[in-house]
Amino acid sequence: MGMLVDGTWQDVWYDTKATGGRFERSASAFRNWITPDGSAGPSGRGGFAAESGRYHLYVSLACPWAHRTLIFRALKGLEDHIGVSVVHPDMLDQGWTFLTDDHGATGDRLHGLDYAHQLYTRAKPDYSGRVTVPILWDRQTETIVSNESSEIIRMFNSAFDGITGNTDDYWPEDLREEIEAVNARVYDTVNNGVYKCGFATTQEAYEAAEAPLFDSLAWLDDRLSRNRYLMGDRLTEADWRLFTTLLRFDMVYHHHFKCSRARIADHPNLWAYTRELYQRPGVAGTVGIAHIVRHYYYSHQTINPNRIVPVLTTPDFGAAHGRG
Ligand SMILES: N[C@@H](CCC(=O)N[C@@H](CS)C(=O)NCC(=O)O)C(=O)O
């Protein structure tokens, strides 16, 4: 674990001293967009036209943010157009690495680098900040297009439609306002809420994140008792953004991040919904349970100093879901 300061790697853990024990996630630094014709997107600069084989996605199978982008790559039929490299599950003193001594870790398929931080300095030699996945890399200009998953999934949702012919739309225009409202609550209290519980370094900070998390899970469970998906009968990005946290919850967040009041399996609608999404075509193939379990328990030494990885019963994501 660490970060880059003026292009030099420093091995430091999150500093929660300045924030009263609260974990505050920093904003992503690379915010360009792939568009059908290379025109600039909502942020960043232009020049990133959708082209088959030009872009490469670096992910961790453990990471819920990276997992969103892998799901969209599968749902939108982009496997033949965007390559993938998978980092090693252990994120230790060099951060994410391209070691390959673990099933499913591919190494850096483009450059053969050792560490993800080398990709950041290749894109920006004086980069300062965290080195996070996902990373969407442009082979043509040798730089990072984006390291912000919420924007990468929107690019994948539509930018390549002319190449793939897949026009499935998970960000439909008429639902955007409602999707944004649900995303905002889910991001703050659930996706990032579990991290705020887990990385808190004071009791107060932990409790301030724990209560809203379980309030939101109850709210979502109720919403899903009346609606098949968060937006009713249409499956949208709001569902996929929630799914990657739900999938990890009972195996990791419930124990390791002390989100212990209840499991997803104790919320009947959320649990059946998690199974339904898991069983959608292409999704199970994006799920790397071994990396999920290994990464969190082994990498977060401040939470689990002896690095003992628990023996777990994997939830039965393939069981009948009975929805729809
Ligand atoms: N806002 C980013 C967050 C990505 C993120 O925090 N990824 C984690 C892995 S789950 C990471 O790489 N952390 C390394 C670090 O913070 O040093 C996104 O959604 O893409």
From TrEMBL:
Check the record and name the CDD domains matching this protein.
Answer: GST_C_Omega_like (cd03190)
Active site annotation, chain numbering: 63 (nucleophile), 195 (proton donor/acceptor)
Residues annotated as binding glutathione: 96, 130-133, 148-149
InterPro entries for this protein? Glutathione-S-Trfase_C-like, Glutathione-S-Trfase_C_sf, Glutathione_S-Trfase, Glutathione_S-Trfase_N, GST_Omega-like_C, GST_Omega/GSH, Thioredoxin-like_sf
Please provide, in alphabetical order, the Gene Ontology terms of the cellular component aspect for this entry. Answer: cytoplasm
GO molecular function: any one?
Answer: glutathione transferase activity
- According to UniProt, residues marked as the site described as Lowers pKa of active site Cys are 253, 296
Q: Where is the GST C-terminal domain?
A: 172-296
Q: Name one Pfam family in it.
A: GST_C_2
Protein name per UniProt: Glutathione-dependent reductase
Protein's organism: Pseudodonghicola xiamenensis
Q: What is this organism's lineage? A: Bacteria, Pseudomonadati, Pseudomonadota, Alphaproteobacteria, Rhodobacterales
